[in-house]
Amino acid sequence: MRIKQQLFPKTIEECIALLVEHEGKARVLAGGTDLFLWLKEGKAQAETLVDISLIEELKHFESDDKRMILGAALTHAEVAAHETVKSCFVALADGCRNVGSPQIRNIGTLGGNIVSAQPAADAVVPLVAMNAKCMIISASGKRTEDIENLFKGVGKSSVDPSRELITEIYVSKPAGRYGTGYVRMAPRDAMALPVVNAAVMVVARDGTITEARIVTSPVAVVPFRTKRAESSLIGKHVDDLSALGAAAQLAEREAQPRDSKVRGSGEYRKSLVKDIVERALIKAVEQIG
Amino acid sequence: MQNFACTINGKPVHIEVDPSKSLLDVLRKDLHLTGAKKGCGEGECGACTVLLDGLPVNSCIIPVMTANGREILTIEGLADNGELHPIQEAFIEAGAVQCGFCTPGVILSAKYLLDKYENPTKQEIMEELSGHLCRCTGYLQFYDAVHLAAQKIRHKGIKT
Ligand SMILES: Cc1cc2nc3c(=O)[nH]c(=O)nc-3n(C[C@H](O)[C@H](O)[C@H](O)COP(=O)(O)OP(=O)(O)OC[C@H]3O[C@@H](n4cnc5c(N)ncnc54)[C@H](O)[C@@H]3O)c2cc1C
Ligand code: FES
Ligand code: FES
C-alpha cells in the first residue's frame, strides 16, 4: 500500500471537490480504525485519503421534541457519553459503549460504522431499530436514505466513499411513548466481537403497543429485522410479559445464524437470539413505564 | 512525503513523513520514541497507546497524518526532569509492572482516567483499562496501582 497524501478539507463542499478532483483514487477517511488496516492489508486501495476530522459540520448534534440529528463524524465515545442520547435513545448509547475498547471508541465514528457494513456493527444495529436515516452528499446531489437500506451484504455498502459522504444521521422521535433496548452477547465485555446482538424500539399509546422494530445480528448478511416478531406485538399491552416472550420466540424462529468458528454454532446462537431479544424488549417497555 | 507538524510531549516537532505509515511507526522509527510498543499492530492489545489531544488511542492503527497539528503525549513525556510521575511510582510500588511491555500504554490510559476522575471506582478503572492486554500481571494489580496513584496525586496536590 502506498498512500500519497492525506488531505484535510474544512467543509463538506471542499471534501466533495477533493473526491471529484482525485476521481476514484481518493477515499473518505474518518477514524481509520477499519480503513487503515484494509489499506495495509491491500483489501482497499486509495492514493489520497480525504480526512473528514476537521469538518466541524460533521460533529454537529441537535435534538428537539421531534428528532435527533447526529453528525456522521461523531465518535462512539462522544455518542455513548451524550446525555441526550442516553435519555432519548439508550440503545444507541449502549451500542456505541460496546464498540471495541476506549481507544477504538475515541477515534471510530458513526459514519465509518455504517459504511464498513458489518452486519453486527454495534452502532448500526440500534440505528436500524430506531429507523434512522442519513444524508448522503456527492457531486451529483444529496439523497436521504434509510440506514437499513444501505447494507448490500457483509462489508458491502451502497455508499461509495470514493464519491460520497455521509454527513448526518436523523432519528425521528416517535409520537407516542417509546423505549429502546440493546443487548449484546460476547465472550467478554471488551474487545470481543458479538456472538449475537439485538436492538429494539417499542412505541405505545395508552399502554398499547402501536409499533415495534426488532433487529438482531449477525444472523444474516445484513442487520436482520424479525418482522413476524415485530407484528406479533402490535395491539399488545406493554405490561404483557408473555407477549414479549412470544415475540422473542418468533424472532428465534426467524433468525438463521450460520455456524461460525469464531462466534459459535448456529443452533447455539439461534437460542441466544430469543434470550437477548426478550431482554431488549423488557428494557424498552420499562422506559415506557 | 508530507510535512507533519505536531506537539509531542510538549515540544514542537516538524518533520517529513510517509503518509502510509502509522503514528506508532513514526514515533518509534523516525523519532526514536520507543516507549510506545508494537504488540499486535491491529488495535487489539493497547501496547501502542498514546494520548492524542488528551484521549487514549491506538497509535498502530492511526495514519501518522491524523495527528498533524495535534498534541501527543507518550510515556517519555510523563517523568519530570528524571523524577517519575506519581502514576509511574504507583505502578512500580503496587507490583503492576512485570515484563513492562504493556506498561507504557496502561499508564497513559490510567493518566486519562485520573485526569477525568479524582478517585475512580473499580468499575471505572475496569472500563477505562479494558483496551489493554497484559500477559504477566493478572490485571488485579492495576486496581491497586490506580488507587495508589490517586492517593499520591491528592497528597502532592499536583495536577497530573
Ligand atoms: C480492534 C478493533 C475492534 C473493533 N471492535 C468493534 C466492535 O466491537 N463493534 C463494531 O461495531 N466495530 C468494531 N470495530 C470496527 C470499527 O472500529 C468501527 O466500524 C468504526 O465505527 C469505524 O469507524 P471509523 O471512523 O474508524 O471508519 P474508517 O476506518 O475511517 O472508515 C471505514 C469505512 O467508511 C468510510 N467512511 C467513513 N466515514 C464516512 C462518511 N462520513 N461518509 C462516507 N464514507 C465514510 C471509509 O471510506 C471506509 O470505507 C473494531 C475495529 C478494531 C480495529
Ligand atoms: S500494537 Fe496497537 S493495539 Fe496492539
Ligand atoms: S507486564 Fe508484561 S504484559 Fe503486562
Task: Please tell me about this protein's structure.
The complex is a heterodimer of chains A (289) and B (160). Helix content of chain A is 33%, strand content 26%. Chain A is α+β, with helices and mostly antiparallel strands. Chain A has 3 domains: 5-51, Uridine Diphospho-n-acetylenolpyruvylglucosamine Reductase, domain 2 (2-Layer Sandwich); 56-172, 2-Layer Sandwich (Uridine Diphospho-n-acetylenolpyruvylglucosamine Reductase, domain 3); 177-288, Enolase-like, domain 1 (2-Layer Sandwich), CATH 3.30.390. A 5-stranded antiparallel beta sheet of chain A has the order 4-5-10-6-7, with helices on one face. In chain A, strand 13 and strand 14 form a beta hairpin. In chain A, helix 10 packs antiparallel against helix 11 (266-288). The longest helix of chain A has 23 residues, at 266-288. The N and C termini of chain A lie far apart (54 Å). The model of chain A has no long low-confidence stretch (mean pLDDT 95). Chain B folds into 2 domains: 2-77, Beta-grasp domain (Ubiquitin-like (UB roll)), CATH 3.10.20.30; 86-155, DNA polymerase, domain 1, CATH 1.10.150.120. Chain B has a 5-stranded mixed beta sheet, sandwiched between helices. The N and C termini of chain B lie far apart (36 Å). Chain B has helices spanning 23-30, 86-93, 103-116, 122-128, 140-156, and strands spanning 2-8, 11-17, 49-52, 55-58, 71-73. Chain B has 5 helices and 5 strands; from the N terminus they run E-E-H-E-E-E-H-H-H-H. In chain B, a hairpin with a 2-residue loop joins strand 1 and strand 2. The model of chain B has no long low-confidence stretch (mean pLDDT 96). Chain B has 160 residues and is an alpha+beta fold. Chain B is 34% helix and 16% strand. The interface between A and B is medium-sized, with 27 and 27 residues. Bound molecules: flavin-adenine dinucleotide (FAD) and FE2/S2 (inorganic) cluster (FES) (2 copies). Flavin-adenine dinucleotide sits between chains A (27-35, 52, 72, 99-100, 104, 107-109, 111-113, 115-116, 121-122, 159, 161, 164-166, 193) and B (43-44, 61).
